[in-house]
Write a structure and sequence with these properties.
alpha/beta; 9-stranded mixed sheet; two-stranded antiparallel sheet; 13 strands; globular
Length: 251
C-alpha cells in the first residue's frame, strides 16, 4: 500500500476514546494518518453542524487536531481548512456501541463518514456492537485486513460509504464477514418523564429495552451470529421504486 495514501480519522466518542486510537493505529499500517476529532462525547449528534457559535480547532500534535464541535464539523474543517490536502479516505470510529438499522440516522460516527462521502472522499464508519471494550483491542488484525481490502478497491462505489459493525465477542471467535442490509430496531420505555425538586417536569431520552429485527441479510442478524457486518449506505434516500406510483397521485 502506498505510504502517501492520506487517511483522516475521526469519531463521535471524542479524541481520547480507545476506539479512535485503535482505528488510527490500524490506519497507520495503510497510509499517512491525520486525526481531527471532537473534544468531547458527541454520540447521537447525527449530521448536525455548529452554526450559532464560532468553532475552535486546537493542534495538539503531529497531524492531530481537537475540535469543539460535532463529527461533521470535524470533517468539514479538516477538508476545507486544517489539512494541507484533502484525504484519500475518511475512517470514522471505532464507535463504542453498535450503529445498525435506524441508528445510522442518529449516529455521529456514520455522519462523519457521510460528510466525507459528500465531499467525494471514500469513507468508512466502524462501530463495535458492545459498550464494553475488553474485546476491542483484539480487533486490530480484523480491521487491518478489512480496511486494507476496501482501500485497495479500484471500484469503490461513488456516493456510498461503508458502515462496519464488529460483533460483541473476541476477535478470534468471529465467523467471518457478511455484506448486509439495515435491520430495524425498536426501543421500549426509552423516554422517561420525571419531576425536579421545584415541581417542574423534565424528560430523559435513553435507556429502556432495545429489540432488533431483520431478515437473514440484515446487519443485526450478522452481528447476532458472530459475523462482521458491512453495509453500503448511499447518499440518495429517494425511494425510487415509488416514484411512478406517487406521480400518479395527482398531487
Amino acid at each position: 500500500m502506498s505510504p502517501r495514501l492520506r487517511i483522516l480519522c475521526t469519531n463521535d466518542d471524542g479524541v481520547h476514546a480507545a476506539g479512535l486510537r485503535l482505528l488510527a493505529e490500524v490506519a497507520r499500517d495503510i497510509g499517512q494518518v491525520e486525526i481531527v476529532a471532537p473534544d468531547r462525547q458527541q454520540s447521537a449528534a447525527s449530521h448536525s453542524l455548529t452554526l450559532h457559535r464560532p468553532l475552535r480547532a486546537t493542534h495538539t500534535g503531529d497531524g492531530e487536531y481537537v475540535v469543539d464541535g460535532t463529527p461533521t464539523d470535524c470533517v468539514l474543517l479538516a477538508v476545507n481548512q486544517l489539512l494541507e490536502t484533502p484525504p484519500d479516505f475518511v475512517f470514522s470510529g471505532v464507535n463504542h456501541g453498535p450503529n445498525m438499522g435506524e441508528d445510522v440516522l442518529y449516529s455521529g460516527t456514520v455522519a462523519a463518514a457521510m460528510e466525507g462521502t459528500i465531499f467525494g472522499i471514500r469513507s468508512v464508519a466502524v462501530s463495535f456492537a458492545s459498550s464494553h471494550d475488553e474485546h476491542l483491542p483484539g480487533y486490530a488484525r480484523v480491521l487491518r485486513d478489512l480496511l486494507g481490502k476496501l482501500v485497495g478497491r479500484d471500484d469503490f462505489p461513488p456516493e456510498t460509504c461503508f458502515n462496519i459493525n464488529l460483533p460483541d465477542r473476541p476477535a478470534a471467535d468471529v465467523q467471518g464477514v457478511r455484506v448486509t442490509s439495515l435491520g430495524r430496531r425498536v426501543y421500549a420505555d426509552s423516554l422517561i418523564r420525571r419531576e425536579d425538586p421545584s415541581g417542574k417536569d423534565y424528560f430523559w431520552i435513553g435507556g429502556g429495552v432495545l429489540s432488533w429485527s431483520g431478515n437473514d441479510e440484515s446487519d443485526f442478524q450478522a452481528i447476532e451470529n458472530g459475523y462482521v457486518s458491512v453495509t453500503p449506505l448511499h447518499l440518495d434516500l429517494t425511494n425510487h421504486g415509488l416514484l411512478r406510483q406517487i406521480r400518479s397521485w395527482d398531487l
